[in-house]
Amino acid sequence: MSVNAEQVRHVAKLARIAMSDAEVEAMVPEFNNILHWVEQLAEVDTDGVEPLTAVIENHLRLRDDVVDDGNCRDDILKNAPDAQHGFFAVPKVIE
């Protein structure tokens, strides 16, 4: 599988990244190298290999769940440019 400049532009648009034509052309071989590497991974024989979530077994230390309000709302709201009724107030962004 390979990508072309139009597909790179589409991915950049989805990611909301502005790219010049030169940057797009430079990214085409980069994308193709990544896809080639992924194709190589697909060729690896994994029959009989157990699924693995971590290389090293980590057992998390559990603690009791204790309900706590944090008791720091006022300190946090001091950093807000605008706060109303105990919440951050932000400008409306959706019409």
Automatic annotation (TrEMBL):
Q: Which reaction does it catalyse?
A: L-glutamyl-tRNA(Gln) + L-glutamine + ATP + H2O = L-glutaminyl-tRNA(Gln) + L-glutamate + ADP + phosphate + H(+); L-aspartyl-tRNA(Asn) + L-glutamine + ATP + H2O = L-asparaginyl-tRNA(Asn) + L-glutamate + ADP + phosphate + 2 H(+)
Write out the entry's keywords from A to Z: ATP-binding, Ligase, Nucleotide-binding, Protein biosynthesis
* EC class: ligase
What is any Pfam family matched here? GatC
Q: Does the keyword Ligase apply?
A: yes
What are the GO MF terms of this UniProt record?
ATP binding; glutaminyl-tRNA synthase (glutamine-hydrolyzing) activity
Q: Which GO terms describe its biological process?
A: glutaminyl-tRNAGln biosynthesis via transamidation; regulation of translational fidelity; translation
Q: Which SUPFAM superfamilies does this entry report, sorted A to Z?
A: Glu-tRNAGln amidotransferase C subunit (SSF141000)
**Segments traversing the membrane:** none
Asked if the keyword Nucleotide-binding belongs to this entry, the reply reads yes
Q: Under which EC number(s) is this enzyme classified?
A: 6.3.5.-
HAMAP family on file: GatC
Subunit field text: Heterotrimer of A, B and C subunits.
The UniProt function text for this chain reads: Allows the formation of correctly charged Asn-tRNA(Asn) or Gln-tRNA(Gln) through the transamidation of misacylated Asp-tRNA(Asn) or Glu-tRNA(Gln) in organisms which lack either or both of asparaginyl-tRNA or glutaminyl-tRNA synthetases. The reaction takes place in the presence of glutamine and ATP through an activated phospho-Asp-tRNA(Asn) or phospho-Glu-tRNA(Gln).
Family under the similarity heading: Belongs to the GatC family.
Protein name as catalogued:
Aspartyl/glutamyl-tRNA(Asn/Gln) amidotransferase subunit C
Q: Which organism is it from?
A: Sphingomonas cremea
